[in-house]
Amino acid sequence: MGRFHSYDWYKVKKEAGVAAGPAVTGLVIVAAFSALLFGSVEYWAMALVAALTAAFFAANVFNAGLNADAPWDVFFAASALLAYPLFQMVPLPAFILGLLQPRTVSLTSLAPAAASFHSISLYVFPTEMALARLIVYLTVFFMATLLPGQGRAVPGVLKALSCFGFMLALFGMVQNVAGNGKLYWLRALSHGGSPFGPFVDRDHFAGYINMIVPLSLAVSLASRRPWKKTLFAFFSVIMSFSVFLTLSRGGVISFIAGLAMFSAILLSKRKTRRSKWQFVSLSAFAIALVSFVLYAGISPLMERFSAGGVSDSQRVLAWKGTLAAFRDFPVFGTGLGTFQYVFTLYHPPGLHHFWDHAHNDYLEFLLDEGIAGTLTGIFFIFTVLREAFRRQWEGKRAYLQAGFASSLATIGVHSLVDFNLHIPSNAILFFMVLGLSLAAGKQQRQIR
């Protein structure tokens, strides 16, 4: 087995014989800027991130020569994912729409001048915006999937993401101690929130960092040099500690779920002498993290878990309202990105405030896309994961497998109680991890 640590950016470029550096740089810059610009939730921030993504993608295509050997079924699944929102925006005759989705006809006929044509999407503009964001996400996905050099640049991306995650965690912790309630100590929150780092909501900071922690831990375990093992392990501990400091219940639970999956994957591999080192390393990581948490004080976190009754009951009411709306639009949905406009019609009694998201990514996607659109999403995810993990990941590559699977698991668990995947920065990182896992999974040669 060759050495993992030789895969810094310039050595990857030399060994692969292609300009892998710009591809790695582009991915990391897009991920970093999307987070630093308040999670890219505002139109101007998302427009800037989209421009950066397009520029880096074009540069890699024309200068670096992306490796175009992604499986055809992944391209097909991605095309279906994009085609479905387009289908939702197509104006249909009223009689056809009545057959496909009667509730849409009854709602649109309330307008004084109801048109004889209407789309499945109840409100086309947010569907257009959501589709534009999805195009950016898939562009990032293919940038990661088609990395030059048969995916051998993947370790470089993981190292850079780990470094950025560590710096972001430090920023969040400093702001948590010495903050004034404003983003970057300058910008006041206009619609409320609980800021942590550059994110308006601490839950979304936790969701973002949680996806990086397993990747950093994988780099630590796979590195050969002791100082690199120690460095990336330290990064992992600090990032994990920042998640606990957010007091995000969903973040803490999803972190524990991801760590459990990481450990389970490694321990399920063939027992060798190195398996003992895995156990020792994971134990040391857990002990260091627990020590940090106990030193900072466990009481605030315990109080946060015990005092969540009101918010939990509100969330359940929102889920009931979402399901009630889904029953009226079961097959084709209300249109990607239309949740906040449709949910006002199904706002349950006793539910306070305006809800622009369901606080459950799966239910919100089900309402927006319907059963048909949800199946396209499942098909895409299933196709990518099947291609990524169908080969045997042994030796040092087993660490990467554990890291990727755990990263995706954390956001999957957190999405049960929040809307992390509706935050552009978090969605970009999710699609990037998907693409990197596929790039690493395609790599037949051993990691050097």
Tell me what portion of residues adopts beta-strand conformation: under 5%
Tally the helices.
Answer: 18
> What is the number of E strands?
2
Q: Bin the helical content.
A: 55-70%
Description:
By secondary structure, the protein is an all-alpha fold. It has one domain (9-93, 130-442). It contains 18 helices and 2 strands. The protein has helices spanning 9-16, 20-36, 43-64, 72-89, 94-100, 102-108, 124-145, 154-178, 202-222, 226-245, 249-268, 273-296, 299-306, 309-328, 339-343, 361-389, 397-414, 424-442; strands at 92-93, 117-118. It has a two-stranded antiparallel sheet with strand order 1-2. α9 runs antiparallel to α10 (226-245) and α10 runs parallel beside α12. The longest helix is centred in the C-terminal third of the chain and has 29 residues, at 361-389. Residues 1-19 and 444-448 have low confidence and may be disordered.
Question: What features would you highlight for this structure?
Answer:
2 strands; 448 residues; 1% strand; disordered C terminus; disordered N terminus
Explain the layout of strands and helices.
Blueprint: H1 9-16, H2 20-36, H3 43-64, H4 72-89, E1 92-93, H5 94-100, H6 102-108, E2 117-118, H7 124-145, H8 154-178, H9 202-222, H10 226-245, H11 249-268, H12 273-296, H13 299-306, H14 309-328, H15 339-343, H16 361-389, H17 397-414, H18 424-442
Antiparallel strand pairs: 1-2
